[in-house]
Specification:
The complex is a heterodimer of chains A (about 300) and B (about 450). Chain A is about 50% helix and about 5% strand. Chain A is mainly α and about 300 residues long. In chain A, strands 1-2 form a two-stranded antiparallel ribbon. In chain A, strands 3-4 form a two-stranded antiparallel ribbon. Among the domains of chain B are: about 35 residues, no CATH class; about 240 residues, Cytochrome Bc1 Complex, Chain C, CATH 1.20.810.10. Chain B has 17 helices and two strands. The chains are: A mainly alpha (about 300), B mainly alpha (about 450).
Chain lengths: ~300, ~450
């Protein structure tokens, strides 16, 4: 049986070596051509968000500013399907404010049924509704956006490597195609209706720059609405939409870890107490006990070691 | 009951006596994990991971049962029931879900340590072959359960993972494609697949629990192995499980839970894939389809077969991937060395660490995009994996001269070795290590 199994092992290894050699030959004779994205794609920018790291928390004023950017700019194309109006109480709005936000929501309406005729109609959202999507379906969304589909933003900071940093980088990363890129890859000119953005995976994003001028949104708390500030705020808001529990999670985690730390230390002390007794029961004497020293001498003599 | 000096259960109260006479359940528990199970006294901390695996199985079952109460088994509703209902609206739903997600990772982590401990200390050898094989059955069931669980949130990686894994079956000649369609209940993952995966994902953990009972039952016939690999000789070599190992396992499980909770509360998505927060879309393939980290080495083996040779490359890959686990069932007979513990096997020990590096390399390859370098590393590492178990291990066990073994466990514990006992079937030999031990 061992021979059969050894043979099987050798066969697998042999086939792998054939694959290895044929790949090596292909690689040497026919190197894959580099792509523009291999060289010009950039990792997300280094910016600080209060939600970063294990002690991350939310700044409600920033989240409210971010919400304002979402509702005045992003919500024209991007849905927020998993978030309800009532969830906004989490970021510091009170019941009346949430009610007003839902009642005055301009971007889109909620499909409904006319109670008198039974005909399909629409109504203003209620606090218990999720944010109604700007387009009724994917076909409508693509038709309005040059066949590109604006993704839902509820989970976007969890669905992209880099999270809020990625969102911020995309929003502030629009630029002209570098001359070096066109020189090296003359065929890689950004196609019409796409926009060059080195933070996007394939460098050309369908979304036109959404934040273009300072003061595009008038902040109520007096913060200066620069493009950078608006991008930061909306990215922070989207961290909240993806992980509304983040601050609570961190607070609960600290308590849990503290409790477990104490419990584990007590458990460790109990373990030592129990085992010390067992060890004494087996070995009542120490290394200086004459009997043990004699044993040790005999062992050393037999092994031919000095001392 | 494993040893003659194992203490029988003695009820401490009339109530317990009443129960014991009618249903000897207290007796069973006492003999299994109580004072009635004598355990070698020299177990090190690598022996704590079996209990930890039991702990994580329990955590998975409890969190899973509650999550199932809120889960919507439909392709339209699954993603939202996880990411909206459970994560936002269910009380502490985010905790249940993150605990379940990361619990799977920690379950695999402790099981991998448990398996590699068995590999190093020869716990698979006679008389514990059945323990080893039942453990492998648990491991296979775990992989099936984890895969099906990963499909349930119906994100991009769920969908495409299901697509890729079920595609393995289509590599089988003749019956492959009908088999794949039968397993999925359709030509691609859809409602039928989601519903059956949910049903099986709920069932299999209880099957695992059943096999765990068999695993422990089989273990209690010969009793636990130990770091010296030397058989238990008499009562001085053992301690009752309770309170000694319950105390040791207790604090150690606390320490593991601490790490688990740190990840769950502070880095809950660290081990996950961002693509799974995008709803499944059969029309958009993600740039990279990767399984969860604990399956990456096998994924690397699968992808390493890139050349057709008599059989198509895909069939080679699938055969190799299944063989890579199935060959472990033959391990007790592939490794012929009578010495169990790797601590007394100098040549085996080197190859063992090489295997660890090899498996980590395979994991890295499995998680990396396909590039000429990663493919080449994957092919060499996969070849070593098979050669290690099927060629190197049998040869090493035939030609290696093991170090002298201690005569008994208590002797090795007390450090009073006066002489070393030669292992059966090998020539005694004085070595540096033995001399150092004698000092």
């Amino acid at each position: 049986m061992r021979f059969i199994l050894g043979f099987i092992g050798a066969v697998f290894a042999g086939v792998l070596m054939i694959a290895f050699i044929s790949n090596l030959a292909t690689y040497l004779t026919n190197r894959p051509a580099p792509l523009p994205a291999d060289e010009f794609h950039l990792p997300p920018k280094e910016v600080h968000f209060t939600s970063d790291g294990p002690f991350g928390y939310f700044d409600n004023r920033q989240l409210q500013r971010g919400f304002q950017v979402y509702s005045e700019v992003c919500s024209a194309c991007h849905s927020l399907k998993l978030v309800s109006f009532r969830d906004l109480k989490d970021i510091g709005y009170d019941d009346a404010e949430v009610k007003a936000i839902a009642a005055q929501w301009k971007a889109s309406k909620v499909p409904s049924i006319n109670p008198d005729t039974g005909e399909a109609t629409t109504r203003q959202p209620l606090p218990s509704d999720t944010f109604p999507p700007p387009f009724p379906n994917e076909v409508a969304a693509r038709a309005a956006n040059n066949n590109a589909l604006p993704p839902d933003l509820s989970l976007i900071t969890k669905a992209r490597e880099g999270g809020a940093h990625y969102v911020y980088s995309i929003l502030t990363g629009f630029q002209n195609q570098p001359a070096a890129l066109l020189k090296k890859f003359p065929d890689a000119k950004t196609p019409p209706n796409l926009h060059y953005n080195p933070y996007f995976a394939n460098l050309n994003i369908a979304m036109p720059p959404p934040l273009t001028t300072d003061g595009q949104v008038q902040y109520q708390d007096g913060t200066k609405p620069t493009v950078d500030q608006m991008a930061r705020d909306v990215a922070a808001f989207l961290v909240w939409t993806a992980q509304p529990e983040l601050a609570r999670r961190h607070a609960a985690g600290a308590v849990v870890v503290f409790f477990l730390l104490i419990a584990t230390i007590l458990g460790y002390l109990a373990y030592h107490q129990i085992w010390d007794e067992a060890k004494r029961a087996v070995r009542p004497t120490g290394p200086l006990d004459p009997e043990n020293q004699a044993k040790s001498r005999r062992a050393k003599a037999k092994a031919g070691v000095a001392g | 009951m494993s040893f003659s000096w194992a203490k029988p259960y003695e009820p401490k109260s009339p109530f317990m006596r009443w129960i014991d006479e009618r249903l000897p359940l207290p007796r069973l528990v006492y003999g299994a994990v109580g004072g009635g199970y004598p355990v070698p006294r020299n177990l090190n901390y690598w022996w704590n991971f079996g209990i930890a695996a039991g702990l994580f199985l329990t955590i998975q079952i409890i969190t899973g049962i509650v999550l199932a109460m809120h889960f919507n088994t439909s392709t339209d509703g699954a993603f939202n029931s996880v990411n909206q209902l459970i994560m936002r609206d269910v009380n502490a739903g985010w905790l249940l879900r993150y605990a379940h997600m990361n619990g799977a990772s920690f379950f695999f982590l402790v099981v991998y340590i448990h398996i590699f401990r068995g590999l190093y200390y020869g716990s698979y050898k006679a008389p514990r072959e059945m323990v080893w094989m039942l453990g492998l059955v648990i491991y296979l069931l775990m992989m099936a359960t984890a895969f099906m669980g990963y499909v349930l949130p119906w994100g991009q990686m769920s969908y495409w993972g299901a697509q890729v894994i079920t595609n393995f079956f289509s590599a089988i000649p003749v019956v492959g494609e009908p088999l794949r369609v039968w397993i999925l209940g359709g030509y691609a993952p859809d409602q039928a697949a989601l519903t059956r995966f949910f049903s099986l994902h709920y069932l299999l953990p209880f099957v695992i629990a059943g096999v765990v009972i068999l695993h422990i039952w089989a273990l209690h016939i010969p009793g636990s192995n130990n770091p010296t690999g030397v058989d238990v000789k008499d009562e001085r070599d053992t301690l009752p499980f309770h309170p000694f190992y319950t105390a040791k396992d207790g604090w150690f499980c606390g320490a593991i839970l601490l790490v688990y909770m740190l990840v769950t509360f502070f880095l809950p998505n660290y081990l996950g894939n961002p693509d799974n927060y995008t709803p499944a879309n059969p029309l958009a393939t993600p740039a990279e389809i990767v399984p969860e980290w604990y399956l990456l080495p096998f994924y690397a083996i699968l992808r390493s077969f890139t050349a057709d040779f008599i059989l198509p490359a895909k069939l080679w890959g699938v055969l190799a991937m299944f063989s890579s686990i199935l060959l472990l069932f033959f391990l007790p007979w592939l490794d012929r060395s009578p010495v169990r513990s790797g601590a007394y096997r100098p040549v085996f020990k080197r190859f063992f660490w090489l295997l660890i590096i090899d498996v980590i390399a395979l994991g890295w390859v499995g998680g990396s995009p396909v590039k000429p370098l990663t493919v080449a590393v994957g092919q060499i590492a996969s070849a070593y994996y098979f050669l290690h178990f099927l060629v190197i291990l049998p040869l090493v066990s035939a030609f290696e001269t093991p170090l002298p073994l201690p005569r008994s466990i208590s002797e090795s514990v007390l450090h009073g070795e006066e002489a070393e006992a030669a292992p059966t079937g090998s020539k005694p030999r004085r070595t540096k290590t033995a001399t150092a031990a004698a000092e």
